[in-house]
From TrEMBL:
Belongs to the RRF family. GO terms for molecular function: ribosomal large subunit binding. This is Ribosome-recycling factor. Signal peptide: none annotated. One of its GO terms (biological process) is cytoplasmic translational termination. Residues 22-185 form the Ribosome recycling factor domain. It comes from Ramlibacter humi. Its main location: cytoplasm. CDD domains: RRF. Keywords: Cytoplasm, Protein biosynthesis. Responsible for the release of ribosomes from messenger RNA at the termination of protein biosynthesis. May increase the efficiency of translation by recycling ribosomes from one round of translation to another. One of its GO terms (cellular component) is cytosol. It is found in: Cytoplasm. SUPFAM superfamilies: Ribosome recycling factor, RRF.
Length: 187
């Protein structure tokens, strides 16, 4: 049976993981600027198996609105181009010899608003995950009190600490959402 300290520690760890997952999801949401992380979700057919683009090519930023993709093997260019085109990112790569340029299309006002809605939705999902972890931790502490492994004073203290950790993580999520929205709305 976990102690109160172990419960708090594991809850904080899980909340940190929720934030990391949220950060990862945010990185996939397109802003007007070019970012190599944008292509992380693209899978390329590499001799019959699907692998992330980062395993068959070097993805880098050429300028603020263009990514460059440099395949590591000759002949992979067309497959990488097809994978980028087929992804749901709305990108149109152009081959220049062995180098593939991926220009970022400018985002319309409507598209920017859609993206901010998506960011808020992701933020809300992350907050829900954090709150669920808080609930689970509080339930674990209550069980310890019920099983006489901890006192009610310990429970009150632990619930206060868990709430502080929860508040800190939710504030971090809010900050990340706000920063991403500003990034998206910056023309």
């Amino acid at each position: 049976m976990a102690t109160i300290a172990e419960t708090k520690k594991s809850t904080e760890g899980k909340m940190d993981q929720s934030i990391a997952a949220f950060k990862n999801n945010l990185a996939k949401i397109r802003t007007g600027r070019a970012s190599p992380g944008l292509l992380d979700s693209v899978q390329v057919d590499y001799y019959g198996s699907m692998v992330p683009i980062g395993q068959v090519a070097n993805v880098s930023v050429l300028d603020a609105r263009t990514l460059s993709v440099q395949p590591w093997e000759k002949g992979m260019g067309p497959k990488i181009e097809k994978a980028i085109r087929d992804s749901d990112l709305g990108l149109n790569p152009a081959s220049m010899g062995e180098l593939i340029r991926v220009p970022m299309p400018p985002m319309s006002e409507e598209r920017r608003k859609e993206m901010t809605k998506l960011v808020r939705h992701e933020g809300e999902a992350a907050k829900i995950a954090v709150r669920n972890l808080r609930r689970d931790a509080n339930d674990a502490v209550k069980k310890l009190v019920k099983d006489k492994a901890a006192s009610e004073d310990d429970q009150k203290r632990a619930e206060g600490d868990i709430q502080k950790v929860t508040d800190r993580h939710i504030a971090e999520i809010d900050k990340m959402v706000e920063a991403k929205e500003q990034e998206i709305m910056a023309v």
